[in-house]
Structure formats: structure tokens, C-alpha cells
From TrEMBL, chain A:
Protein's recorded name: Biotin-dependent carboxylase uncharacterized domain-containing protein
Listed GO MF terms: ATP binding; hydrolase activity
Record Pfam families: CT_A_B (PF02626)
Keyword Repeat: no
Domain Carboxyltransferase, residue spans: 26-301
Keywords assigned: ATP-binding, Hydrolase, Nucleotide-binding
Presence of the UniProt keyword Nucleotide-binding in the record: yes
UniProtKB/TrEMBL annotation, chain B:
Signal peptide: none
Pfam families noted in UniProt: CT_C_D (PF02682)
GO MF assignments: ATP binding; hydrolase activity
Organism in which the protein naturally occurs: Roseovarius lutimaris
Protein name: Sensor histidine kinase inhibitor, KipI family
Keywords in alphabetical order: ATP-binding, Hydrolase, Nucleotide-binding
Record bears the keyword Nucleotide-binding: yes
Ranges for domain Carboxyltransferase: 12-216
PANTHER family per record: 5-OXOPROLINASE SUBUNIT B
SMART domains: AHS1
Taxonomy, superkingdom: Bacteria
Length: 340, 252
């Protein structure tokens, strides 16, 4: 019998996510997938498995889980208070979760999206080659209390107890931007002001997009534009009718009529997705060459992370220190055998 | 600031979008010709099978190309696309092969098209003439968007260049046909809209329970076949496929 993860108590916005489904833009469906792709790479690195496996994405709040058989788990993304049968566990680490043990995940202490990965991945039925829920498109559904989520075969069941220093993306900061569809329609002084402006995340936002607040005049194209609906891409920064900026996230529409001043580079998108209300953000235009030089594809990230995974300290007298990410310095587990 | 700070006013226009996108725009406004060009150019790009291109799509008047920036560099892709653009009169280009013509049963007016009279009046014709036009004009899938599989159809004759209503209709049902700006939308999901609902079908553009969940492709054509409200109800009660009684054939 294959293992399953029983959801004893589901948080309000938990879904199965992976890298999404490509190739469907022409049918009006964006790729979707995890809001924070870096978290997927971290989970894959911690469990020594493929980047393409599905995990549980938890917006704002975790839940309570139990496994029907021994499984491996890893926790990444927005850190949440976590315990396994009452014992506090460190975020951004992997564990053996024995059959019958209870994993309890609380509210996110920073960031929006936390991830629960399982060895072998969540093995729900794929649709168009992806298990990702895309709720606005009517694909998949919210995870509910009582759900039994099938877990894929895990060949590495004995490899647990690892930790990874998380890539910082929970405190905002500067986000690099490339030109998008309508960048040239914004006058140069408006683009300069856009770069000089301090933005912050507002509470409005979801997997489709994140709203930003700022002080000052709206960013407008200056001309009376009747913009024809045009193709959108994840990361686009669109100025809605009243000049309110939204950064588009993985579940965005595929075409839209609002002007877009730029598009966030793929590597910086997680900073926007994970920014909680009030988190400061600034935008800086870069050239294609600069963006390309800084670009690290997820597979490269995963491979690099897999090399820096380290064993958790197992001395029981120091278990309480684990929250401070104490590591055995210099230890390398050396397992990085991804085959696909 | 950016290479594209000054945008070319000439068409077709090629511009970078983010790290991995290129947009080829054929006109500032929608016209039948611009849409044909966008569809035809996408067909041309797909057929050319350029290494590094990962996905192509179209909007009303543009072709959008995504590529893997690490497999193939931007300048190379740009050069390939420019070579494909060169030497064709994009204002008058044949549409790609393999498109389908769909005959879709539709009930216009009454409870199934509560705003038909209002829309016809804005178009300066009476309701019978409106129904006659809606069921004799082959409309093309100009683009698919806003919801998965949801087609924007056109272009209708010039007198159908009617504005969207100022308020929103709270909810139109799945399968609704709504009109504005010389286009029709055939809704794939129940949604609020500013377009006027003039008819309804039992046709589903998105059928997630099917292996091929998207019924229409861009460039396909639709001819609505007039049926009564009762006939539509019957189809709704018996249809298991989501095609709503529609049939299709390849356009040759």
C-alpha cells in the first residue's frame, strides 16, 4: 500500500503546487504553480529529489498532518511554528515522520507561503502534466481537513535530518526589473520616479497578484492610451485604472488591458510573493545582459543547495537550540543524485 | 535607461518582454488583418521550430514568443524572428492550416439573451436582423483568454462597434454569448461582465475532465446555429460531452 498524508486540520489556503503547467498560454491558461519557486528548490535539495515533485503550499497558516506510513518531510518557504508530536522542529530542514506521528504547523512568522514537502512528492493525479491547483481556473481544489493525499514512492527513506540555510526573500528590498510590454509608453521621468519610489506590500493580494502601496502621484503612461489587451507574463508590474501597482504572480491571466511598466526578473519574484503587508520594496531597471548574468535557473539553485545541505545536530541536549540554525560546520552530506 | 526606451512606431514591432519573452505587434488597434497576421506569424514561428523557443501564443494583434535565455540568446532569437517577418506582406496573409469550423447551436434573445434588444438597438438594427447576423457571420477565435479556453470572437460588421455597458452584469452563465466592440465572448465560466449578454449555448470551451480540455484553438471559426430556448434546455439536459450539440470540421 502506498503512503498517504492525512490532513487532520487544514489551514484556510492550502493547495498542492509544483512548477505548474507550461505550454497552455495559447489556451488562456498561465503556468501557475508554486508562488515561491525557491522554496521548491530548497525542498528538493533537502530531500535529495527532483525539482518537479509536488508539495503542499500553505498561505499564511499551516495545519495538522499525520502519515499512514513512515515518510520523509521537509519544511521550506515562510517559516511557521512547527512541531512533531509536540517536539519543536526547525524550519528549512528534513525529518522522518513516522506513521502515526502528528505534524503541527502554525502561522507564518515572516513571509506568506510555507511549504510542506514529502519524500516522493505529493502524488495526486496530474492534469496537463502538473499537479498544481489553479483555483481561479477551476483546476484542483483547496486542501480540506480529512483529505488523504497520496505520497509518491520514496527511494531515500533513510536520508533525513538535514538542514539548509534559507535564501533570504522574506524581508523585501530591491527587486530588479526588465522592460515589459508597455514600458516605452511610460515617460522617462515617470520611470525614474518609479525607480526612486519606496513601495510596500498591501494586504491585498493572492496567487494572481500582489498589490503595492506608495506615496505620490499615480504612475501613468501620460498619453491617453486605449491599450489593446496584450499578453501578460508572470512578474509584470501593471498599473490599474487608478494607478495602483500590482505585481502579477503565477496564477495571473494570460492577457490584460492595463499598462505594465516593467516585469520583475524571475530570481526576484519570490521576494514579492513572500512580502507581507508593510514589507518595503524598491524596483531597479537592469539591462537584459545584467539580468541574464544574475539569472540562476531553479535547477542550478537546487543543485547548489543540495551541495550545501548539512546534517542537523542530533545531540538531544542541544535540541532546543535548533531554532537558531546551529549547524555542524563544514559537514557535507554529499548526496545529490538527481537522475531526471 | 533601457534599450527600448524609445519605441518604434512602425509595424510589425519587435520588443523584449522580461528575460524570456519577445512580443511581435502587428498594429496598435484590433483589425481583422492585424489578428490574421498575429495568428499567421505564430504559425510561421511554430513551423520554423527555432531552437530555444519554448512557447508561443497570440493576443488580438500580437504574437508572443517565450524562449529559454540560457539555451539560446536573445539576439539570436530576435534575428531568427526578424528573418521570419521579412519578405511577407503581413497585412494580407493566409491563416495557418488545420483550423476548424465549429457549428454551435445557440439561443438568442429571451431569457437566454436578455440584452439582445438593447445591443441590437445600439448597433442600429432590430432584433431579428441581429439574430440573422449572429447566425450567418462566421466569427474567428481572435484570441483565448481571461479564463481558460474562453474565446474572443470576431470581427463583427462595423455597426457592432458598441461600447461595453458602464455597469457590470453581476453574473452571466457558462455558455453565455456577450457582445461589445465588434467582438463576441463565449463564456467558459459564470462571471460578472461589462459585455451585453445576447444569447446562450451549452458549448464548453474548457472541459477539465477531458484529456484535451481546450475545445477551441486560436484561429478556429464559429458559426452559431439558431435554436429555441426549449431546444437549448433539451441539449443542456442531455449533453454529456460539453460540446452542446456542436459539430466541427477542418477548414480547407
Amino acid at each position: 500500500m502506498t503512503a498517504a498524508l492525512i490532513v487532520r486540520r487544514a489551514g484556510p489556503a492550502m493547495t498542492v503546487q509544483d512548477l505548474g503547467r507550461k505550454g497552455q498560454l495559447v489556451y488562456g491558461l498561465a503556468a501557475g504553480g508554486a508562488a515561491d519557486r525557491v522554496a521548491l528548490a530548497e525542498g528538493a535539495a533537502l530531500l535529495g529529489q527532483s525539482l518537479g515533485l509536488a508539495a503542499i503550499e500553505m498561505a499564511g497558516m499551516g495545519g495538522e498532518f499525520e502519515a499512514t506510513q513512515d515518510i520523509r518531510i521537509a519544511l521550506t518557504g515562510a517559516p511557521m511554528k512547527a512541531d512533531l508530536d509536540g517536539a519543536t522542529v526547525v524550519w528549512n530542514a528534513s525529518y522522518l515522520m513516522a506513521a502515526g506521528q502528528h505534524l503541527t504547523l502554525g502561522a507564518a512568522s515572516s513571509g506568506n507561503y510555507g511549504y510542506l514537502h514529502v519524500g516522493g512528492g505529493i502524488d495526486t493525479k496530474p492534469f496537463l502534466a502538473s499537479r498544481a491547483a489553479h483555483l481561479t481556473a477551476g483546476i484542483g481544489k483547496l486542501i480540506q481537513s480529512g483529505d488523504h493525499l497520496p505520497v509518491g514512492t520514496d527511494p531515500l527513506l533513510d536520508q533525513t535530518g538535514n538542514v539548509l540555510i534559507p535564501q533570504d526573500r522574506f524581508s523585501g528590498g530591491t527587486v530588479t526589473v526588465l522592460p515589459s510590454v508597455h514600458t516605452a509608453h511610460f515617460p522617462e521621468d515617470v520611470r525614474a520616479r518609479f525607480e526612486a519610489t519606496a513601495f510596500e506590500r498591501t494586504p491585498r493580494g493572492n496567487r494572481q497578484g500582489a498589490e503595492l502601496a506608495f506615496e505620490g502621484a499615480p504612475f501613468s503612461t501620460g498619453e491617453q492610451l486605449t491599450i489593446l489587451s496584450e499578453c501578460m507574463t508572470v512578474g509584470d508590474i501593471q498599473m490599474t485604472g487608478d494607478g495602483q501597482p500590482f505585481v502579477l504572480l503565477p496564477e495571473c491571466q494570460t492577457v490584460g488591458g492595463y499598462p505594465r511598466i516593467g516585469t520583475v526578473t524571475p530570481g526576484d519574484l519570490a521576494k514579492v510573493a513572500q512580502a507581507t503587508p508593510g514589507t518595503p520594496l524598491r524596483f531597479e531597471f537592469v539591462t537584459h545582459e545584467q539580468a541574464l548574468a544574475a539569472h540562476r535557473p531553479l535547477e542550478t539553485l537546487r543543485a547548489d543547495m543540495a551541495r550545501s545541505v548539512q546534517p542537523l545536530i542530533r545531540d538531544p541536549h542541544r535540541m532546543h537550540d535548533l531554532l537558531s540554525y546551529q549547524l555542524i560546520s563544514g559537514a557535507i552530506t554529499g548526496w545529490d543524485h538527481i537522475e531526471d | 535607461m533601457t534599450d527600448q526606451a524609445k519605441q518604434s512606431k512602425t509595424f510589425p514591432r519587435l520588443q523584449n518582454v522580461g528575460l524570456d519573452g519577445l512580443l511581435i505587434t502587428f498594429a496598435e488597434r484590433l483589425s481583422d488583418g492585424a489578428n490574421r497576421a498575429a495568428l499567421a506569424f505564430r504559425g510561421r514561428v511554430e513551423a520554423a521550430d527555432i531552437e530555444g523557443i519554448t512557447e508561443t501564443t497570440t493576443s488580438l494583434a500580437s504574437t508572443f514568443v517565450l524562449f529559454d535565455p540560457l539555451k539560446s540568446d536573445l539576439d539570436h532569437i530576435r534575428a531568427q524572428l526578424l528573418a521570419l517577418l521579412d519578405g511577407t506582406d503581413w497585412a494580407d496573409v493566409p491563416l495557418p492550416q488545420g483550423r476548424r469550423l465549429w457549428r454551435v447551436p445557440a439561443a438568442f434573445g429571451g431569457t437566454r439573451g436578455p440584452q439582445l434588444d438593447e445591443a441590437a438597438k445600439l448597433a442600429g438594427i432590430d432584433r431579428d436582423r441581429a439574430i440573422e447576423e449572429m447566425t450567418s457571420t462566421r466569427v474567428r477565435v481572435l484570441t483565448i483568454g481571461f479564463a481558460p479556453g474562453q474565446p474572443y470572437l470576431g470581427t463583427l460588421p462595423p455597426h457592432w462597434n458598441i461600447p461595453r455597458q458602464s455597469g457590470l452584469t453581476k453574473q452571466v452563465p457558462t455558455g453565455a454569448i456577450a457582445v461589445a466592440i465588434r467582438q463576441l465572448v463565449l463564456f467558459t465560466a459564470s462571471t460578472p461582465t461589462g459585455w451585453r449578454m445576447i444569447g446562450q449555448t451549452a458549448f464548453r470551451g474548457f472541459r477539465p475532465d477531458q484529456d484535451a480540455p481546450f475545445t477551441l484553438g486560436v484561429g478556429d471559426e464559429i458559426l452559431f446555429a439558431p435554436i429555441s430556448e426549449q431546444e437549448l434546455t433539451e441539449i443542456e439536459n442531455t449533453d454529456q460531452t460539453g460540446l452542446g450539440g456542436a459539430t466541427s470540421e477542418v477548414i480547407t
